[in-house]
Write a structure and sequence with these properties.
This protein is mainly β. The protein contains 2 helices and 11 strands; from the N terminus they run E-E-E-E-E-E-E-H-H-E-E-E-E.
């Protein structure tokens, strides 16, 4: 497996925030298989594998084996996966990361750009209050930002980011 970085440095300003701002210095203990039974995950949910811990940076590199993706996530978070996606979330559950693989032919789109535009449009059509915007970043990935999203169980509207990364080895697939 080759982990490629998503270089989202195209006019995206983190405001000085780093992984350390979202992490708890637990040296990766939160990823050790003590999943939260209150988080939905389906019948085949398992803890994800810790590849390495970078305590100085406040992050752990996590491997989601079922979807063949490796991510750097803040320490103190938890991560699980099932047969189709990887899920990570902060200890207070205010921040979540969901990762899944996309097959463009199955989705009926030709490439990452078409997928990003189609998904943004379909979400806005179903939920008119949601504002969606897609743009191509300098590294070829597509960032889709959904604002004013309020789903079942959400206490308040939130912002959702989709980063569509085309698979270089198999261009008809991507990870989101």
């Amino acid at each position: 497996m080759i982990a490629l970085p998503a270089l989202a440095d195209d006019k995206l300003d983190p405001g000085g925030l780093t992984f350390r701002d979202f992490s708890t210095n637990d040296n990766g203990a939160s990823y050790g298989g003590r999943g939260d039974p209150m988080i939905a995950g389906g019948p085949n949910q398992v803890s994800s594998k810790v590849v390495t811990v970078e305590g100085a940076n406040g992050l752990a590199r996590i491997q989601f084996s079922s979807i063949r993706v490796e991510l750097a996530l803040p320490l103190g978070w938890q991560a699980t996966e099932d047969w189709e996606r990887g899920v990570a979330y902060s200890s207070d559950k205010r921040y979540r990361v969901l990762v899944w693989r996309v097959d463009f032919a199955y989705e009926g789109v030709k490439d990452a750009e078409h997928y990003a535009a189609t998904k943004a449009g379909s979400i806005q059509a179903r939920r008119p209050a949601v504002q969606a915007q897609a743009r191509k970043l300098g590294d070829g990935t597509f960032l889709v930002v959904y604002d004013n999203v309020k789903g079942p169980g959400d206490a308040e509207p939130r912002v959702v980011f989709d980063l569509v990364t085309q698979n270089r080895a198999t261009p008809r697939r991507a990870s989101c």
